[in-house]
Specification:
The protein is mainly α. The chain folds into 2 domains: about 110 residues, Hypothetical protein af1432; about 60 residues, no CATH class. Helix content is about 80%, strand content about 0%. It has 10 helices and no strands.
């Protein structure tokens, strides 16, 4: 199966934690949303697998741009059609919900939303990432995560099913983060 070959290509550059704590979650949520929205499951899975290939290979800065040629190389090598490649590239470009790169297709909306949904499953890991970024400053780490989940909830997720899936997690995370911030 071709999707397995794409997954293998991604796993060659992604570490186990990247797969376990992000990519596999994005794939899971994207497939769930794809069933509800009745869109092409293969393209959804390809885009979910490849949405962060730029970040994995080159770092977070502009990874929605750096990932496009990487994904294109992988998909061309596996003889995917130009139509599929273009859709996956659009999903990668728009998954961060930037104003300059809005999601223009239902599949791109699904990838954008699934990426955001995945964050609500890993709040402690996001805090750990914040601690590394801010040299152990818990105040800054908590503030970073709080901003991230608010941005995900308010700006990234647009499909009704997306918010339904994580509403309880969002409320719990907000309560935890706000309570923690009050301690500072």
């Amino acid at each position: 199966m071709m999707i397995e070959k794409v997954k293998e290509a991604v796993l060659k550059v992604a570490d186990e934690d990247e797969w376990k704590f992000h990519l596999s979650l994005v794939v899971k949520y994207a497939k769930h949303l794809a069933k509800i929205e009745k869109v092409n499951m293969e393209i959804v899975e390809l885009a979910a697998l490849l949405h962060d290939i730029g970040r994995i290979k080159f770092g977070g800065k502009d990874h929605e741009i750096t990932g496009v040629p990487e994904a294109e190389k992988i998909l061309k090598r596996l003889d995917y059609s130009d139509e599929i490649i273009e859709e996956v590239k659009h999903c990668i470009e728009s998954h961060r919900a930037g104003v300059n790169r809005p999601a223009k297709t239902k599949i791109a909306e699904i990838i954008r939303d699934a990426d955001a949904i995945s964050h609500f499953d890993i709040i402690p890991i996001l805090i750990q990432i914040g601690l590394k970024k801010y040299d152990g400053d818990i105040r800054k780490a908590v503030k970073l995560v709080h901003k991230k989940i608010d941005r995900d909830w308010n700006n990234k997720m647009h499909l009704p099913e997306s918010k339904r899936l994580v509403e309880e997690k969002y409320k719990a995370a907000k309560l935890l983060l706000e309570t923690t911030e009050k301690c500072f």
